[in-house]
Amino acid sequence: MNVAIIGLPLSGKSMIFDAVAGGHEAQSHDPTKPRVVTVKVPDERMEWLREHCNPKKFTLDSIEFLDFAGLFDTSPEAPRDSRIFSEVRASDALMMVLRGFLDDALPHPEGSVDPARDLRFIEAEMLLADLDTIERRIVKLEVQVTKPTQTQEQDKLELAVLRRCRDAVNEEEPIKSIQLKSNEEKAIRGFRFLTAKDAAVVINIGDDQQPDDSWRAAIVEKYAQVVFVRGRIEAEIAELEEADRAEFLADMGIDESARDRLIHSSMRILGRGNFFTIGGDEVKAWPLDPGDTALDCAGKIHTDLARGFIRAEVTHFDDLEKCGSIKEVKAQNKSRLEGKDYEVKDGDMLDIRFNV
């Protein structure tokens, strides 16, 4: 799973990427390609499991972030780079960075700092990019549906859905706002429209600047995840060694680093949680997507577990934490057996019973 970090020039977007990267080396320095970093997802539950289970191996979940340069240019004559937009479409979610910091040495291209205005510009550009894709596909489909082919009915469905998308975009409404049936959503899933993606908003403020609630109020109606970050200082904190980082945050009275907040915010916009396994010498966090069943999770662990699935023994982390040990969990009957259709919950610990 990955999140594309996007923003206007001089928004400090790359600072936010550096803060998230936490000192990890990005995988690309080619200016024509996004910088990419894979980071571990911090989880206090996993720390508890490590302390109480004392495993030889300890594996956190991970998430990938991409930093896209040159995506937006506010000058009227600037061409839209369809190639970069295409790469952003391949991401699972968006993190939109807005400038909130004041810097006389780095004037804002529009002459003033206004995160809500900048967000409207980004939204408009994404709508135009989606509209361009929609219109080009509609032109092809309008010819295609007149031919008696094996895909004619599916083509007609896709055309009808794309026309609805075009109507919404022309009304400056994101594709995500359209209520689609499952077969309609499937018909256009492959386009991975920008305005159909879940997104978080990061407002990048100065080192000594306080969050402006009026900025949040102007944005929060559309985006549930709105995070204020002191980008420059957080990028510097992320470069520190882990022990020094914790001490620095404690001295500043900060409970959670921006890096952790941004990672957790990304997990929330992806709708993603974690299930855990405690087996042999390893404690491991696995990605949990909305609607995942016990059978789905068994397959994530190993294909043999899904192929020979019998039952899943399920214990929730909260019960283990209260009981203090697996032995006490079993004594209090807090574990249970579930079938393959059981919808796994964030924090569930699974022990898959199987036979192949």
SS content category? alpha/beta
Helical fraction:
40-55%
- Oligomeric state of this protein: single chain
Number of strands: 12
Under CATH, the topology of the domain at 291-354 is which? Ubiquitin-like (UB roll)
Helix-strand pattern: EHEHEEHEHHHEHEHHHEEHHEHHEE
Largest sheet: 6 strands, mixed
CATH class of the domain at 291-354: Alpha Beta
**Estimated share of beta-strand residues:** 15-25%
Q: Spans with pLDDT under 50 lasting ≥5 residues? A: none
Question: Describe it for me?
Answer:
By secondary structure, the protein is α/β, with parallel strands linked by helices. The chain has a domain at 291-354: Ubiquitin-like (UB roll). It is built from 14 helices and twelve strands. The chain has helices spanning 13-21, 44-53, 82-89, 115-144, 152-170, 182-188, 213-219, 231-238, 242-252, 258-269, 294-301, 303-307, 317-323, 326-331, and strands at 2-7, 35-40, 57-59, 62-67, 93-99, 198-204, 226-229, 273-279, 282-288, 309-316, 336-338, 348-354. Strands 2-4-1-5-6-7 form a six-stranded mixed β-sheet, with helices on both faces. Strands 3-9-8 form a three-stranded mixed β-sheet, sandwiched between helices. Helix 1 (13-21) packs parallel to helix 8 and helix 5 (152-170) crosses helix 6 (182-188). The chain is flat, with a radius of gyration of 23 Å. The two termini are 30 Å apart. The model has no long low-confidence stretch (mean pLDDT 89).
Quick structural summary:
The protein has 356 residues and is of the alpha/beta class.
Descriptive keywords:
356 residues; Ubiquitin-like (UB roll); alpha/beta
